[in-house]
Design a protein that fits this description.
4-stranded antiparallel β-sheet; elongated; 3-stranded antiparallel β-sheet; 132 residues; mainly beta
Length: 132
């Protein structure tokens, strides 16, 4: 994931901590670049190298090691016994049913009659079509 362009600046014209405003510049209908200016006073910078960006301060003690571990909702393979993975689970636009028990169920229900749905066969590879 590319990092975002910095936007916080210390403007040399007005002396304020401000934001960098990026506006497209056009020649007719063709975009030819960007105009970089201070959001507080409108001072225009010549190019990106002349913009005095503020550097982010790192707070000591907080980094990736300090993040809590992601929550685990299910234990390993615990969600494999849900009705949605059973061969008897039937979905239709109006109701979800168990064909074995002949009753209405929800996708997240479980029961003792669970039998896993067989894996669908892999699609057969067709030979490449020749172009003449």
């Amino acid at each position: 994931m590319p990092s975002a362009k910095p936007v916080e600046i210390l403007c040399p014209a007005c002396g304020q901590e401000s934001f960098l405003k990026r506006a497209p510049r056009y020649d007719g209908f063709t975009r030819v670049g960007e105009t970089l200016s201070c959001a507080a006073c409108g001072h225009v910078f010549a190019d990106e190298a002349s913009v005095p960006f503020q550097h982010k301060k790192k707070i000591a003690g907080f980094d990736a090691k300090n993040l809590p571990p992601p929550p685990r909702v299910f234990r390993a393979n615990e969600n494999a016994r849900l009705c949605r993975y059973c061969e008897s689970y039937v979905v239709n636009p109006f109701i979800q049913r168990c064909s074995r028990l002949e009753k209405e169920v929800e996708a997240t229900d479980t029961c003792d009659n669970f039998k896993p749905r067989p894996e669908p066969p892999a699609p057969a590879q067709s030979p490449p079509k020749s172009v003449l």
